Amino acid sequence: MKVRTIAYWITTSFIALETLLGGVIDLTHGRTGVVSGPLVTEVVTSLGYPMYILTIIGILKIPGAITIVIPGFLRLKEWAYAGIVFELFGAAASQAACGNRGNLVAPLSLLCLAIASWALRPANRVLRVDGAD
After folding, report:
1. Contact (CB, 8 A) for 41 and 29
2. What percent of the chain has pLDDT over 90?
3. CA-CA distances (angstroms) from residue 125 to 13, 57, 81?
4. pLDDT tens-digit map of 14-63
5. Please, what's the largest Cα pairwise distance for the chain?
6. In whole angstroms, how far apart are CA 24 and each of 19, 46, 99?
7. Could you tell me which residues come within 8 angstroms of residue 130 by beta carbon, excluding any fewer than 6 positions away?
8. pLDDT value at position 38?
């Protein structure tokens, strides 16, 4: 059981950090000093998305990252995980649809980490079937 808890916290910490930093990078359009601005904006525009999508996604990523780490809020956690999975799957699907098959590794790897984090949750972080939080 201890190995499962360690694996949960490793995957959750990594996906939460990536989602949090990704949200900040999206909101600032890459002008954080962490990643060069043109990289984020070029990726988004090369996929055919408008620039304002970065603001929308960035606003949602930050609370999602926080939600999966803090205790409680089980129903909100489910929504946060769903949002992270949708965003990463959408990123991979967008890259594939545009023929950028070489750019699939990062979103698919992160998608696997997000799913692993969700699947490894301890019992006190799982929403019960009866809906009680």
Report:
1. yes
2. 77
3. 15, 25, 12
4. 999 999 999 999 998 877 665 555 588 889 999 999 999 999 999 999 99
5. 47
6. 9, 20, 27
7. none
8. 57
Query: Phi and psi dihedrals of 54, rounded to 5?
Result: -60, -40
Q: Which two tokens stand for residue 126?
A: 């799982």
- Alpha helix stretches (DSSP H) within the chain: 2-28, 37-46, 52-69, 74-97, 105-119
pLDDT at position 80: 97
Question: How far is Cα 27 from Cα 40, in angstroms, rounded to an integer?
Answer: 10
Closest CA to 74 of 131, 13, 17, 10: 131
Tokens of 8: 């949960």
